[in-house]
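queue> pop job 88
queue> type: inverse folding (structure -> sequence)
queue> payload:
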C-alpha cells in the first residue's frame, strides 16, 4: 500500500497559487447570479426543501413527512434557516416567525450550496495529491469548471451536498488505507453514513471504507474488525440522522420504494452504461470525455498490476457501481461520482503522458503535451459553464421583472422559469 509510482519532481510540490486560482474560479462560477431572481426564479425542487424547513421552524415537528430522500439535508437547512432568522431578528427585521415566509430563506440556503460546491473542489485537490501535485490541480480544475456541478451548486438541492460527501468519503477511505487504524475506518464510515443520510443513492459510499478495510495491509489491524467498525459507524450515522426511518416506518418504506421504482428501464437515451456514457460526454465535452474513459481504463489496469493498487481499486469500484445506478435516474444523479472521475481523468493526462519517458521522449515534449491536453480538457466545460451562468442570470432577472410587485404564491411555490430557458446539455 505504500508503493508509489514514478513522479516528476514538479509532482512533489503542490502549487498554492494554482490552488488559489482554481478555488477562486470555482467560487466565482458558483456565486455568479446566485441570488438573482429570488424568489421568482427557483428550481422546481427547491420549494420542496425550504417549505418543509420553514414548517419545522414553526411547528417544532422534526419529521419532514417526506421520504423521497433522507432527512439530513432538511436538518442542515433547518440550522441555516434558524441562523438566518436570528441574524435578521438581531438586525430588527423580524420579531416573530409569523412575519417570515419560505421566500426569505432561499438566499442563505443557496449560499450554503455554493460553499459546499467550492469545498468539493478543494477535496478533489486533496484526493489528487495521493497521485501527485499536477494530478491534484488538474482534477480540481476539471471539477471547478464542470457545468453540471456549477449548476447544481446554485440551488438548494441535495446533489451538490452529496457530491461533497462522496468526495469526503473517498478521501477518508484513502486516509484509512494509509493509517490502517480502527479510528480512521470509523471516521471514513461516518462520512459514508452522512452521504447515505443525504440521498439513498449515497449509500454506495459505504463500499469505500469496506473495500479499504479488505485491502488493509497493516498486519496488526484485523481486516474484519476495521470493516465492522466502518460499516457499523455508517449504519448508525444514517439512522441517527434519519431517525424517522424507524419512527415513521411505513412512509419511509413507501418513499424508498418510490425511489427504487423510479429507476426503471424506460427513459430518454436508454439507461445504464449507455446513458452514463452520454451524460459523461455532456458533462466533460468530447476531449474530457475521452480522457475520463482513458483514466478509468488506466485505473482498471493499475488496480490489477499496480503501483497504487488499493487507491485505484477504490476509484474503479466506485465508478463501476455508482455510474450505472446514477445514470438510471438522469444526468443530475451523476454528479456525486464526478469528483472521482475528475481525478481519474487527471491521472490519464499526467501519468499517461509520463509513461512516454520510457520511449526517450524529452521532458519538454511531455510537458507540452500535458499542457495541450489540459487546455483541451478544461476549455469546453469552462465555456459551457460561463454560458450557463450568464443565461441563468439573465433569465432570473427576467423572471423577477415578470413577477413585478406581485407577492409570491401563498405556499411559496414559484414557477421554475429559469430551467425552461437554460441549454439542455447543462441541466
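queue> result:
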Amino acid at each position: 500500500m505504500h508503493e508509489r509510482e514514478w513522479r516528476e519532481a514538479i509532482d512533489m510540490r503542490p502549487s498554492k497559487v494554482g490552488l488559489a486560482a482554481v478555488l477562486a474560479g470555482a467560487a466565482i462560477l458558483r456565486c455568479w447570479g446566485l441570488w438573482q431572481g429570488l424568489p421568482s426564479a427557483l428550481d422546481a425542487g427547491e420549494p420542496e426543501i425550504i417549505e418543509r424547513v420553514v414548517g419545522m421552524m414553526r411547528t417544532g415537528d422534526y419529521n419532514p413527512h417526506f421520504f423521497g430522500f433522507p432527512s439530513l439535508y432538511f436538518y442542515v437547512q433547518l440550522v441555516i434557516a434558524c441562523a438566518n432568522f436570528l441574524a435578521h431578528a438581531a438586525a430588527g427585521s423580524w420579531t416573530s416567525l409569523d412575519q417570515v415566509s419560505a421566500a426569505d430563506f432561499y438566499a442563505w440556503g443557496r449560499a450554503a450550496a455554493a460553499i459546499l460546491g467550492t469545498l468539493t473542489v478543494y477535496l478533489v485537490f486533496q484526493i489528487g495529491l495521493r497521485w501527485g501535485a499536477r494530478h491534484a490541480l488538474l482534477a480540481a480544475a476539471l471539477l471547478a469548471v464542470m457545468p453540471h456541478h456549477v449548476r447544481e451548486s446554485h440551488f438548494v438541492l441535495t446533489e451538490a451536498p452529496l457530491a461533497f460527501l462522496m468526495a469526503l468519503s473517498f478521501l477518508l477511505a484513502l486516509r484509512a488505507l494509509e493509517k490502517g487504524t480502527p479510528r480512521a475506518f470509523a471516521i471514513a464510515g461516518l462520512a459514508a453514513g452522512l452521504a447515505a443520510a443525504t440521498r439513498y443513492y449515497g449509500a454506495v459510499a459505504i463500499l469505500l471504507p469496506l473495500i479499504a478495510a479488505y485491502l488493509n495491509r497493516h498486519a496488526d489491524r484485523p481486516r474484519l474488525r476495521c470493516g465492522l467498525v466502518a460499516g457499523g459507524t455508517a449504519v448508525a450515522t444514517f439512522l441517527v440522522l434519519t431517525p424517522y426511518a424507524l419512527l415513521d416506518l411505513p412512509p419511509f418504506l413507501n418513499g424508498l420504494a418510490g425511489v427504487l421504482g423510479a429507476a426503471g428501464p424506460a427513459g430518454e437515451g436508454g439507461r445504464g452504461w449507455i446513458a452514463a456514457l452520454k451524460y459523461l460526454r455532456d458533462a466533460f465535452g468530447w476531449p474530457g470525455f475521452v480522457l475520463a474513459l482513458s483514466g478509468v481504463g488506466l485505473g482498471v489496469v493499475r488496480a490489477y498490476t499496480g503501483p497504487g493498487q488499493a487507491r485505484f481499486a477504490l476509484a474503479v469500484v466506485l465508478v463501476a457501481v455508482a455510474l450505472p445506478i446514477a445514470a438510471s435516474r438522469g444526468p443530475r444523479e451523476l454528479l456525486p461520482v464526478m469528483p472521482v472521475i475528475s481525478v481519474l481523468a487527471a491521472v490519464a493526462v499526467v501519468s499517461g503522458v509520463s509513461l512516454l519517458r520510457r520511449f526517450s521522449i524529452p521532458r519538454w515534449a511531455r510537458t507540452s503535451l500535458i499542457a495541450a491536453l489540459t487546455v483541451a480538457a478544461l476549455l469546453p466545460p469552462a465555456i459551457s459553464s460561463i454560458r450557463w451562468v450568464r443565461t441563468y442570470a439573465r433569465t432570473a432577472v427576467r423572471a423577477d421583472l415578470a413577477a413585478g410587485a406581485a407577492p409570491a404564491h401563498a405556499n411559496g411555490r414559484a414557477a421554475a422559469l429559469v430551467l425552461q430557458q437554460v441549454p439542455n446539455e447543462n441541466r
